[in-house]
Amino acid sequence: MGLLGGIASGKSAVARMLAGPTGVVIDADEIAREVLETAAVRFELLATFGGTVFGRDGRPDRGALARKVFASPEARAKLESFTHPAIRARIRAALEAAVTAGVPRVVLDVPLLLENDHAHGLVAECDAIVFVDAGEDVRDERAVRSRGWKPGEVARREAVQAPLAQKRARARWIVQNQGTLAELEKAVAGVAAEIAPR
After folding, report:
1. Nearest CA to 109 among 185, 197, 198, 32?
2. With a threshold of 0.85, does the pTM exceed it?
3. In the predicted model, is pLDDT for residue 198 greater than 60?
4. What is the torsion angle, in degrees rounded to the nearest 10, for the CA atoms of residue 164, residue 167, residue 168 and residue 171?
5. Using one digit for the tens of pLDDT, what is the confidence trace for 23-45?
6. CB of 4 within 8 A of CB of 167?
7. Quick one: which of 120, 115, 119, 118 has its CA closest to 26?
C-alpha cells in the first residue's frame, strides 16, 4: 500500500494502523535520517554546504539543512543527487525483504512517492494507493505544535511537491484525518478491510 497526503496530514499514524501488528511500514523519512548519518553523505554535506549544516555534536542538523534546501532549488537538487539514490536503494531492499518474508501488509510511507516515481518505480508495486486528507489549517497547526515549525512552513515546503489535488486523484481510497484518534482508527479500519479483507 502506498500512502499519499500533505505534510503533517498524519501519514505516519495511518501507516502504522494500515500495517497492523503483522505488517511492515517502510518509512522514507526514517531511512533519510539514517542515510544522512552515513560517512559518505556526511562528507558530501560538508563539501557542498560547509559546516553550517552540522550541529555542535558534529551530526547533520536537519533543520539547518532544510532551511538551505527549501530556499534554493539548486541546493535541493544537489542534496537529492547524493541522498536519493541511497534512500531508494534502502527502500527497495526493505520492500524486497518484506515480500520475501511473506509479510501480509507492507505500507510505503514515502513523501515523494509520485514525484520521484520515474526514478524508483514504487507506484507500480502498490496494490492500493491511499490518500490521507486533512485541511491546510489543521496540518499547519499540527506542524507548529509537534515540529516547532513557523506558521506557513507547510505550504512553503509543499510548493515544491506535486499538488495535493493530483495526489488525491491518484488514490482509490481516502482517509479523513481532521478529528479524533478514535475517528481516525475507525476510518483506517474501514479502508484496510476494503483493501485486504481478513
Report:
1. 32
2. yes
3. no
4. -170
5. 999 999 999 999 999 999 999 99
6. yes
7. 120
Provide the Cα torsion 124, 168, 153, 119; round to 10°: 20
pLDDT tens, position by position, 49-76: 999 999 999 999 998 998 899 889 999 9
Q: Is the pLDDT score of 157 beyond 60? A: yes
What's at 111, amino acid-wise?
P
Residue 42 cell numbers, joined: 556526511
Domains and CATH numbers, the chain: 1-23+105-193 (3.40.50.300), 30-103 (3.40.50.300)
State the alpha helices, DSSP H only, in 3-116: 11-19, 28-36, 39-49, 62-69, 73-100
Residues 6+ apart with CB under 8 A from 188: 14, 17, 18, 175
